[in-house]
Design brief:
The protein has 171 residues and is α+β, with helices and mostly antiparallel strands. It has three helices and seven strands, in the order H-E-E-E-E-E-E-E-H-H. It has a five-stranded antiparallel β-sheet with strand order 1-2-3-6-7, sandwiched between helices. A two-stranded antiparallel ribbon has the order 4-5. Keywords: Hydrolase, Iron, Metal-binding, Protein biosynthesis.
Length: 171
């Protein structure tokens, strides 16, 4: 297992629709292990394959940040099959470091996909887990959290991020 570099906005892979996983093999298992290690090292609560430069429909989530060994979930070729309600909360992203914004999401979702053993799983989630599912699913479709905001909010996030990048470069 290895910690992989996390792609930062505006890298092109973050804006591409990821390809479906066709084979669950040893290489994919290694990628999953690396993504889990990378997510925990960041630290984060979710990570999609495009965020480590791999355009595949795959993400890992653990909203406990590693505090509950049973909370770690892996989804291959996921789909959101239903949504309910609307909430708006602050959200951030490992690919847009240091920037958060009030992002609208469904309050509850049902997510279906394959686990790392290739078995179909379907999970109903609300709260932070529902938000994490939607956030990571968006990555698989080339979207970032600020794409869910209105024009004003999206532009504000982009300006904040560019300013933060300039400050970082000046150091």
């Amino acid at each position: 297992m290895a910690v992989r570099p996390i792609c930062a906005y505006p890298e092109a892979v973050l804006r591409q629709k990821a390809k479906p996983v066709e084979t669950i093999d040893d290489d994919l298992q290694l990628l999953i292990d690396d993504m889990i290690e990378t997510m925990y090292a960041a630290p984060g609560i979710g990570l999609a394959a495009p965020q480590v430069g791999i355009s595949l429909q795959l993400f890992v989530v653990d909203v406990t940040g590693g505090q509950d060994a049973n909370a770690l979930q892996t989804y291959i070729n996921p789909e959101i099959v239903s949504t309910e309600g609307r909430v708006r909360e602050d959200e951030g992203c490992l690919s847009v470091v240091g920037i958060t914004g009030s992002t609208p999401r469904a309050e509850r979702v049902v997510l279906r996909g394959l686990n790392r053993e290739g078995e179909t799983v379907e999970v109903e989630a609300d709260g932070l887990l529902a938000r994490a599912f939607q956030h990571e699913f968006d990555h698989l479709n080339g979207m970032l959290f600020f794409d869910r905001m209105g024009v004003v909010g999206r532009d504000l996030i982009k300006r904040k991020y560019k300013r933060a990048q300039r400050r970082q470069a000046d150091r």
